[in-house]
Amino acid sequence: MPGPLEGIRVFDLTRILAGPSCTQMLGDLGADVIKIERAGAGDDTRNFAPPYIKDDEGNDTSEAAYFCAANRNKRSVTLDISKPEGQALAKRLIGTSQVLVENFKTGGLKKYGLSYDDLKDEFPGLIYCSITGFGQTGPYAMRPGYDVLIQGMSGLMSLNGDPDGEPMKAAIPVADLMAGMYAGVSINAALRHREITGEGQHIDIGMLDVMVSFTTIMGMNYLATGNNPPRLGNAHPNIVPYQAFETSDGAIILAVGNDGQFQRFCKVAECEELPANPDYATNGARLKNREQLVPIIKDIVKQKPMDFWLKELEANTVSCGPIYKLDQVFSNEHVLARDMKIEMEQPVTGAHVPLINSPIKMSGTPVTARMAPPTIGEHTDSVLQELLEMDEGELSKLREQGVI
Fold first, then answer.
1. N or C end of the chain, less CB within 10 A?
2. Which residues are catalytic?
3. pLDDT for res 349
4. Among the listed ranges 23-32, 54-63, 312-321, which one has the minimum average pLDDT value?
5. Residue from 143, 133, 87 nearest 110 by CA
């Protein structure tokens, strides 16, 4: 069954994570993604290793796990865009594409004649998406952007971490990944606009913009009060109790989302005097009296084992759950039933690459995992032969010139 983006070709000038996560999503949705890489070097993340993907005998291949996280469903073409011949070839490939995605520094493609301004008149229907640290405008536009830097400057790190500890970044590069997500959403909207009008446009995604938006409820709490929210560790800024609690043999998450759940929790916990107390009867009261309530709940939860709380609270429709490590996540029956772990054969290495599947579930146009993350330049010849009808003589000349 064809994906919703079947027939859309993406000229992919991205590397590392923000851009590649975007173009992988487009590839999962059916787009033909042509990933442009530097000959001999490729995407920087090919060297973000170990760990490497292992072959069927358990030996390391040359393929970095990091690279494989964001480069499924792409065809790799090596092309030197610093050479005039490479720039000309890039334009020919762009001419076969509806979308171009790049995450060079602001203005970085101008010197190659591949900026939006360079291409917009020649390709008026082209959707050109730029992903940068700080966007195309503003006083910081020319600064390079890195995930941890953006997490700090967006306020996220000031919100994350133990109340008595230091500001803490998220373990996952959320600034990169959310920038890729917003880029993917924007590209799909621009494709709809193009379908109606025939017009392309420039999409400007700045990671700092994305992460300022990502502060969501905490940002709104600040805007509403003028007060910087304190770090709360695993606690929620607006709901109590809503955090991790230690049982007698491990930690669980207790997420009491409303007053009814709190009453049912207290019935299971045999502390029904708590919801009868006006200090704790409503979420607003519990929030106001967080510092005295949470220690009481901690003492109660710690008296019984994890299995008791998980079974009894679930039976009474109180939101709770375990805190898994990744080995438990990827062996979990629900995660497996949802096909979130897949395996794809990589033709060049022969390895069976384990991958995290797309979370997008669509009944009519499901996402597909068609191609394993490519080896560097794996599809150079086939793409140029297919899209530009080049013969072996032309390919040999380009290789001799160091263009491909």
1. N
2. 176
3. 84
4. 54-63
5. 87
Instruction: Work out the angle between the directed axes of helices 174-197 and 207-214 (0-180°, nearest 10).
Output: 110
Q: What's the pTM?
A: 0.93
Q: Which fold has domain 9-214+333-400?
A: Rossmann fold (3.40.50)
User: What's the mean pLDDT in 191-220?
Assistant: 98
pLDDT the model gives residue 351: 85
pLDDT score of 57: 86
- By residue count, the chain amounts to 404
Whether residue 234 is predicted with pLDDT greater than 90 in this model: the reply is yes
Q: How far apart are CA 289 and CA 279, in angstroms?
A: 7
CA distance 229 to 214: 15
Alpha carbons 193 and 142: distance in angstroms, whole number: 29
On the question of a common fold for 9-214+333-400 and 242-324, the answer reads no
Residue 1 confidence (pLDDT) above 70: no
Question: Alpha-carbon distance 128 to 204, whole Å?
Answer: 9
Amino acid symbol at 9: R
Q: Where are the domains of the chain?
A: 9-214+333-400, 242-324
Q: Give me the CATH topology for the region 242-324.
A: formyl-coa transferase, domain 3 (3.30.1540)
Query: What does DSSP say about strands 60-64 and 127-132: parallel, antiparallel, or unpaired?
Result: unpaired
Q: Which residues pair with 342 in a beta bridge?
A: 355
For 119-161, the pLDDT digits (tens) are 999 999 999 999 999 999 999 999 999 999 999 999 999 999 9
Whole-number average pLDDT of the chain: 96
